[in-house]
Amino acid sequence: MDRSLMLIINPMAGRGSYRISFGDAMQVLSEGGYRTTLFFTARRGDATRFAAQHAAQYDVVACIGGDGTLSEVLAGLMTLDNPPPVGYFPMGTANDVATTLGLPKNDTVAAARRILTGTPHPFDVGGFGEKDYFSYIAAFGAFTEVSYATPQDQKKMLGHLAYVLQGMQTLPKIEPIHTVVEYDGGSFEGNLLYGSVSNSTSVAGIVRLPEAMVSLGDGVSELVLVRDPGTVANFAELVSSVLSERFDSDKLLILHTKKARFRFDYPVAWTRDGEAGGEYRDIEIRNIHCPVKLIF
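Structure (tokenized):
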């Protein structure tokens, strides 16, 4: 018996390269027993609206796009009592979620085959404030605005290099942020360069957390706090150690928590899954334990 699949497509993701083998991918799904209905996004929020309004009518919902598109789909599914499992065609620049899940990137045919052969796995979703969500990371501080401040045309032409170039431009602007953080079993107060709550081994396609440290469905998130290193030399040493996957610096704190509350002296800008997330003086972030299932 055929199964129904809702496919939400962000036509701007991955430089539009999904079109090259899109027909072959649809043939793979068809031969695998799926009847596919296409939904194309035109603006931010469309994927959330499509998923909320229509996903309950399908056996599987999938999306072609980057981490931001997947995040929007999951936000829409959070409005449903019994959401269908989610398939993912990663076609973005960083593809952090795909890296964590081991999904084929920028290859629609391979991604279609994975939907046929993969297994739905429970997946934690992040709750941001009272009504917003994220799929794998919410962050503030150094470099976090790079993902959404980088011009789209540069992302298309340069990929990861675009993020690096944009990040270099932000170096002179980096200032420590006085922060109070309350988390499960403890608290922190001090000056931070960076803070995040995540459920991923990959951040911006560059920094990787140890796989043994991250579990996608354990009900807790990874809290990462980077203290002000004080000098340019210490900052350079810290960046080098993180990029080399060495996390033993006394300026770096990595914890596991179900929730975290952040308080600042002034409104601080956040990013959620690589998109602008708003500015807050007081924000609580929580782990929502396995409300959806991802196919991988």
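The CA atoms of residues 118 and 296 lie 5 Å apart. The longest strand covers residues 275-295.
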